[in-house]
Amino acid sequence: MECLRALLKDYKNEIEEILVADKQLQKELLYDMQKDEASMGKAKAVAEAGPSGTCRMPAGQTLSGMAGADASARATVRSVLKEVNQNTPTPALHLMSVPKVKSILRSAGPGSRRPDVLESVRRPRLFESDDEN
């Protein structure tokens, strides 16, 4: 996305004219560029706010573009984990729906040949060879 943004930086206003034949691609590119700019803005704000308690930088180093994106990703992960870990316990196993499996032998009604077929397959067969005569 960074490469595309650099290429289209000068032509951002002309994207609609360039991609007039493919409206869907045009909308996707504009949306992706807006999201990328927003994430870069967040990363810059995080970098300007200073390092958090978990991310300490040695003296003299600053966050580059990728490090800023990493900080933004860490903030996103923290917010997602906060939503997931709202102390909701996992439901008990007996409350979960478990598929029921029927046995072939039990499901075979009267007149069904399945148990007979299975028994015939299980029995060992002795084949007589023509060479023994």
From TrEMBL:
Residues 42-67, 104-133 are annotated as: Disordered. One of its GO terms (cellular component) is condensin complex. One of its GO terms (biological process) is meiotic chromosome condensation. Keywords: Coiled coil. InterPro entries: CND1/NCAPD3. Residues 1-28 form a coiled coil. This is Uncharacterized protein. Residues 113-133 have a biased composition (Basic and acidic residues). One of its GO terms (molecular function) is histone binding.
